[in-house]
């Protein structure tokens, strides 16, 4: 395959991914769930400190990114 055509396809995929992430961030407040505030995320508020670790959010994002990479590699063949 032509290298310029391959570069063009890659740029189109990255552009579509950027648009998708932008739409998700823009309309994120209107979704029925909030990333970063899912049940299972650990929040500990002390007297002078707050510890926050988004365990479930990390798992959901990891699964979504893994699925996107799998789909990308599956359709690339």
Order of helices and strands: HEEH
Task: Determine the strand fraction and express it as a percent band.
Answer: 5-15%
- What would you report as the Rg, rounded to the nearest angstrom? 18 Å
User: Helical stretch count?
Assistant: 2
Number of strands: 2
Largest sheet: 2 strands, antiparallel
**Mean pLDDT across every amino acid position:** 86
Cα end-to-end separation: 12 Å
**Outline:** elongated
Strand order of the largest sheet: 1-2
Q: What is the helix fraction of residues, given as a range?
A: 55-70%
Low-pLDDT windows of residues: none
> Structural class of the secondary structure composition?
mainly alpha
Note the topology.
Elements: H1 3-26, E1 42-45, E2 50-53, H2 55-76
Antiparallel strand pairs: 1-2
């Amino acid at each position: 395959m032509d290298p310029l055509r391959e570069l063009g396809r890659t740029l189109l995929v990255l552009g579509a991914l950027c648009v998708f992430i932008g739409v998700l961030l823009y309309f994120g407040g209107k979704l029925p769930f909030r990333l970063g505030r899912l049940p299972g995320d650990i929040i500990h508020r002390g007297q002078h400190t707050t510890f926050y670790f988004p365990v479930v959010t990390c798992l959901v994002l990891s699964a979504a990114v893994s699925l996107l990479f799998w789909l990308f590699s599956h359709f690339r063949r």
